[in-house]
Specification:
By secondary structure, this protein is of the alpha+beta class. 44% of the residues lie in helices and 11% in strands. It has helices at residues 2-29, 41-46, 48-62, 102-116, 120-126, 134-155, 185-204, 208-229, 272-281, 287-297, 338-357, 407-410, 412-423, 451-461, 466-475, 479-493, and strands spanning 72-73, 78-79, 82-84, 99-100, 166-169, 172-175, 182-184, 230-232, 235-236, 239-242, 254-256, 303-308, 311-316, 367-368, 379-380, 398-399, 429-430, 433-434, 438-439, 448-450. The strands form 9 sheets. A 3-stranded antiparallel beta sheet has the order 4-5-6. A 3-stranded antiparallel beta sheet has the order 7-10-11. A two-stranded antiparallel sheet has the order 1-2.
């Protein structure tokens, strides 16, 4: 009837109107890519709701980096190092960095694991367009990734399942010049633990077949860790040279790379992750030999006081005291050991007080250099705090948001305040999330987006994987060994800690601004 037709038409119009309202609301709910000015630093420090809103905005925009052809290759599931961006707009420029390493793979797996575990902010990153589908996306990526790893191990068994620096094809990793017969210990130490945390997440997600494949791959790494990386006398090789990459480990010969600057991983920093993997999962026949792993590290565990106007702060001496050196605290449950938690918290206290008292508008970490044009001069390793490090610091003019990556673990609010403060710099927020770095003058940026600077920050912000690893170690009856060794080694060198009551430092100086921001984010 006419009446029925009119009623139906009215319902269609009403439905369209309601749908339009929903779409408008959804669009308005999405934060613009330069969202930092809309947050009050005072509220960020202590207000949980404000912190959650900020993390929600951060992970949404960092998720734009997690796209096929930008941060990773979907067919292979492998990470790209990163992608250049235009100085003027922040949009993608030139070619993707078609190379990667196990360190970048580890960060990727961390976020995929957290998404599978139900972390809504990790889901934001994994699939910003539809976070409710993040677990499905994670499973797809991890399925492609393990296929790539399996192909790699089948083709080049001499690597023992570990990854060198490599380039990317749809079939998996491809040998990269300079790394055709060498494999790094530090980066793979990061990767092995990310896989370890992934396996229970896959189990909880009901992906039993995928869990089995990843578990088998981790078993390969466990079986080969001593053969590939252990030199003897407590020494883990920093880089191992492989005689024949086509032969299985049992038929191969592994040696130190001749003339290497750093022969062994005897550091108490992120290199310690491989030492722990070798200690806990290597096939040891001699317990005294196993203990030598820790004896070789002992000389570099040093207590030193950072002298501030508020008093001395006892910290563990750094290499440069770059933030990346504490990567291990985002992986293993160091913060569950009271002496470790106190020492590493003091380290973040000194890091933030140093920038506060020296009027530095950000935090230091090794990073890709800033540039006047599209050409990045190189990588700046020697960024940090010289007075509490072994090495001289050559650059004090570059700051990076990921300088706060482990500050989050010590104090979430303080970490977010510093991270937010650096986002306030000109061109530090773009259509693919945070920018790599800025100079302290606010005039130059590093026109790049990478896993190392962007997603390490998210890992720390979301508390990393230590709780997952702790649960696994307890299940395997390995946690007590971890706890007792960390406690023993640190207690010997830190009988007393100064400065634990000194407040964390907060920003006192803004990054100078000329209001030059990316047009799409202004």
């Amino acid at each position: 009837s006419k009446r029925q037709h009119k009623l139906t038409s009215t319902m269609k119009v009403s439905t369209l109107f309601i749908s339009a309202i929903i779409v408008v609301c959804a669009v308005e709910a999405v934060p613009k890519c330069r969202f930092a000015p809309s947050f009050d630093p005072k509220k960020i420090l202590n207000d949980k709701e404000t912190q959650n809103q900020l993390i929600d905005a951060i992970t949404y925009w960092e998720g734009h980096f997690h796209q096929d052809g930008v941060g990773f290759d979907l067919k292979s599931g492998l990470t790209f190092d990163g992608h250049p961006i235009l100085q003027s707009t922040g949009e993608l420029y030139g070619q993707v960095h078609n190379f990667s390493a196990s360190s970048k793979e580890s960060i990727h797996i961390h976020l995929l694991t957290l998404a599978l575990d139900g972390d809504k902010y990790a889901a934001n990153f994994v699939n910003y367009k539809n976070p409710s589908e993040a677990k499905k996306v994670a499973i797809e990526v991890l399925t492609n990734k393990i296929k790539s790893y399996e192909n790699w191990n089948r083709k080049y068994p001499g690597f023992g399942g570990f990854l060198p620096w490599f380039s990317i094809s749809s079939e998996g990793p491809v040998l990269l010049n300079g790394w055709t017969d060498q494999v790094p210990g530090l980066d793979n130490g990061q990767l092995v633990w990310s896989i370890h945390a992934l396996i229970p997440a896959l189990r909880s997600a009901g992906a039993s077949d995928l869990e089995s494949r990843w578990n088998k791959y981790l078993d390969v790494m466990k079986q080969n860790v001593l053969r590939v990386f252990y030199q003897g006398q407590g020494h883990i090789r920093a880089v191992t040279k492989i005689k024949d990459i086509t032969l299985p480990p049992s038929q191969n010969t592994y040696t130190v790379v001749p003339g290497g600057d750093t022969t062994f991983l005897d550091d108490p920093y992120e290199g310690e992750l491989m030492t722990w993997f070798a200690d806990l999962y290597g096939s040891w026949t001699n317990s005294s030999e196993r203990e030598l792993l820790w004896a070789t590290k002992r000389p570099k565990i040093q207590s030193v006081d950072y002298v501030s106007s508020k008093g001395n702060i006892t910290v563990q001496r750094g290499y440069w005291f770059s933030a990346h050196e504490q990567w291990k605290t985002m992986v293993l449950p160091y913060y569950s050991v009271p002496i470790a938690r106190r020492i590493y918290t003091n380290g973040e206290r000194a890091r933030t007080v140093h920038s506060q008292e020296n009027k530095i508008p950000g935090l230091y970490a090794s990073i890709n250099d800033v540039s006047k044009d599209q050409n990045i001069p190189g990588y700046v390793s020697d960024a940090g705090i010289e007075r509490i490090s072994f090495q001289k610091v050559g650059r004090r003019d570059i700051i990076t948001p990921y300088g706060a990556m482990t500050t989050f673990l010590a104090n979430k609010g303080v970490g977010l305040v510093w991270y937010h403060h650096m986002l306030m710099g000109d061109r530090m927020q773009g259509p693919y999330g945070s920018t790599e770095a800025t100079n302290v003058a606010g005039t130059l940026i590093s026109p790049l987006t990478t896993w190392d600077s962007k997603i390490t920050s998210l890992n720390g912000m979301l508390n990393g994987i230590p709780k997952i690893i702790e649960k696994q170690l307890r299940k395997e009856n390995l946690y007590n060994r971890f706890y007792s060794i960390v406690k023993r080694e640190l207690s010997q060198k830190f009988p007393k800690l100064n400065g634990e009551n000194i407040p964390f430092g907060l920003p006192t100086t803004k990054i100078p601004s000329s209001n030059t921001n990316f047009p799409s984010c202004a």
